[in-house]
Write a structure and sequence with these properties.
This protein folds into 3 domains: 184 residues, no CATH class; 149 residues, GAF domain (Beta-Lactamase, 2-Layer Sandwich), CATH 3.30.450.40; 148 residues, Heat Shock Protein 90, CATH 3.30.565.10. The longest helix has 66 residues. By secondary structure, the protein is α+β, with helices and mostly antiparallel strands. The chain is built from 17 helices and 15 strands. It starts with a helix and ends in a 26-residue tail after the last strand.
Length: 616
């Protein structure tokens, strides 16, 4: 991001002035100490009446007094500060040159020159100390010529060269220090700018992370970004591919408030500035004041200046973010455009995820509604079918009574066929009702203490031929508290499933206890279940044979009902392979289930009977 050059220059000048002010302050303190040393030396030597001594000392004292008055931190930021400092340096240097004409003070004054050189270090340009040194050397030569004997060249050249060398070194060191100060200030300014950017990004990211919907996130997000840019209006527009337009996401942010603008569209065919930002994928700054733009949205918002950046996710442009009208009514700068672009990048990513999340949530909600409608439909239809079907079955049973049965064998065969098909239809309806109740978690529970082995044998007696084809091996007497209707339906469905798909092979029922849980194993030795069906075998309407080659009837609800009933009793069911081939279904139940809410049964019934039928 571009660093504001004017701000950097102001910071540099302020830091340089502060550094030079410290040099002046230290040199003035040293100057007062040196003046005190001069006065002590004059008293010791006895040159108090010598005008070449007390006049320069008085001039030095006057200059030090004048230089001690200003606030140099402020004075050096003005041109007059450098001029005042230069005049003071030359005056003090000239006074010491006059004092040096007195032989007793020549070596003592030389030390004072180094203080003058140190004071020169506070001058603005590195050439000024060098020029000042040359002026002082000339002043020293003239003083020696005017007040002393004709100076020896060595007495002039050596101090002059020394003074010039020290001045050059001082100027070089001062110039290097000032360059390092400027570099340090520039780096500090860059770091401060980056810190501000990171703080803004953090605030934007925190705002995005705290929301779970676009309507909650957008007002605060756009408000923060507009505040950073000192803008009064903030708008987000998302692409609506179905309408080939940019749709303003409501609400928008305007002067600290939110405005509802639901349904506002910018058709992409208009190709205004905002539309061009989306189409080109390039950030733009534009104005409404020239009257030549086609910013319909800006016209309706009543703003003059705006900047807009595309919201990009990967290589896809999903919309545009725009802020308009600075508080001071000045145009936006390139730096403002860069700031908006940097802040819009993470915003675009999170807004895209929020949009997908809302789409997924809406799809899930609709799927739940469809599932509920399906369940309600199945329940209603099943109830409506069950009432007339009960009358039909009752009528057929009445006709089948010996005193009413037809004498014709064909009629009897048709009657038996009708009774069997009506029974299958009743079982199908009961299965559909059961599936609907399982989906709605509306199964009533009526737990009862039962002895496991006698209960299993009584259930097998209800299944034709099961008593002689299925062996029961319950090693120890087991008592379990469970709903007998639910457990009976589970066993019937599993046994019928084994007899159907493992014909001609033995079927076994065994049990085992582990802690407070009971496992009932229904084992067959048939062809087993292929691995690709294992994850689907407990889903409704799953068939174990392909529809085109299926030779066994059924709807595929039996195992789904087994799973739902087992879970309603606080247990589970799983499928394992039988040793030497086949399938083993294991029902895991608690011996003493926890108390669970009991949904009321309709008409005092559980909604199904344990009338054995095939795994429809």
């Amino acid at each position: 991001m571009t660093i504001p050059s004017m701000s950097t220059r102001r910071s540099t000048r302020a830091a340089m002035a502060a550094s030079r002010a410290r040099v002046v302050a230290l040199t003035l303190r040293a100057g007062w100490l040196m003046l005190a040393a001069f006065l002590f030396a004059i008293w010791r030597v006895g040159e108090v009446g010598n005008v070449r001594i007390w006049a320069p000392v008085a001039a030095i004292a006057a200059v030090l007094g004048v230089l001690s008055l200003p606030n140099w931190d402020v004075t050096l930021r003005r041109g007059s500060g450098d001029l005042l400092l230069l005049l003071g340096v030359i005056t003090i240097g000239s006074a010491m040159s006059i004092m040096a004409t007195v032989p007793a003070f020549a070596s003592f004054v030389l030390i004072g020159y180094f203080g003058v050189v140190a004071l020169m270090a506070a001058l603005a340009h590195w050439l000024v100390p060098l020029i000042t040194a040359l002026v002082l050397a000339a002043t020293n030569f003239l003083a020696q010529s005017a007040f002393g004997s004709t100076p020896n060249p060595e007495e002039i050249v050596v101090p002059t060269i020394t003074l010039i060398v020290v001045a050059i070194a001082t100027a070089a060191i001062t110039n290097e220090l000032r360059r390092e100060i400027r570099n340090g200030i520039r780096r500090q300014t860059e770091l401060e700018a980056r810190e501000r950017d990171l703080e803004r990004l953090y605030e934007v990211s925190r705002t995005l992370a705290a929301g779970d919907s676009l309507t909650r996130v957008l007002p605060e997000l756009v408000g923060k970004i507009a505040t950073y840019l000192e803008a009064e209006v903030g708008v987000v527009l998302l692409h609506n591919p179905e309408k080939s337009a940019l749709e303003v996401v409501s609400p928008i942010w305007a002067a600290g408030h939110t405005l509802d603008v639901t349904g506002y569209l910018l058709p992409l065919r208009r190709r205004g500035d905002i539309e061009q930002t989306f189409v080109s994928g390039q950030a733009r700054a534009f104005t409404q004041q020239d009257g030549k733009t086609t910013n319909h949205l800006l016209t309706e918002l009543g703003v003059d200046y705006a900047v807009a950046v595309p919201l990009k996710v990967e290589h896809r442009t999903m919309g545009v973010m725009m802020v308009a009208d600075r508080v001071d009514r000045t145009p936006f700068t390139d730096d403002d455009l860069d700031v908006l672009a940097s802040l819009s990048a993470p915003a675009a990513l999170v807004l895209a995820h929020l949009g997908r999340y809302e789409e997924a949530a809406e799809t899930g909600r609709r799927m739940e509604e469809l599932a509920q409608l399906k369940s309600d439909f199945v329940s209603v239809v099943s109830h409506e079918l069950r009432t007339p079907l009960t009358s039909i079955i009752g009528s057929l049973d009445t006709i089948a009574r010996p005193e009413l049965a037809p004498s014709n064998n064909s009629a009897l065969s048709l009657l038996d066929s009708a009774r069997n098909q009506a029974g299958r239809l009743r079982q199908l309806i009961e299965n559909l009702l059961m599936t609907s109740r399982i989906d709605n978690q509306a199964l009533p529970q009526h737990p009862t203490e039962i002895d496991l082995e006698p209960f299993i044998r009584s259930v097998l007696n209800e299944i034709p031929a099961a008593a002689r084809l299925v062996s029961v091996q319950v090693s120890d007497p087991v008592t379990i508290r469970v709903d007998p209707d639910h457990l009976g339906r589970v066993l019937i469905n599993l046994v019928q499933n084994a007899l159907k798909y493992a014909q001609g092979t033995p079927t076994e029922i065994t049990s085992s206890i582990a802690g407070e849980r009971l496992e009932i194993h229904v084992i067959d030795h048939g062809p087993g279940i292929s691995p690709d069906l294992r994850d689907k075998v407990f889903e409704p309407f799953t068939q174990l044979e392909p529809a085109a080659t299926r030779s066994r009837s059924g709807t595929g609800l039996g195992l789904a009902i087994v799973k739902g009933l087992a879970e309603s009793m606080g247990g589970s069911v799983r499928l394992e392979d039988t040793v030497d081939g086949g399938a083993t279904f294991i029902v895991d139940l608690p011996l003493r289930p926890r108390s669970v809410p009991r949904p009321p049964a309709e008409d005092g019934k559980t909604g199904y009977s344990r009338d054995p039928a095939a795994n429809e």
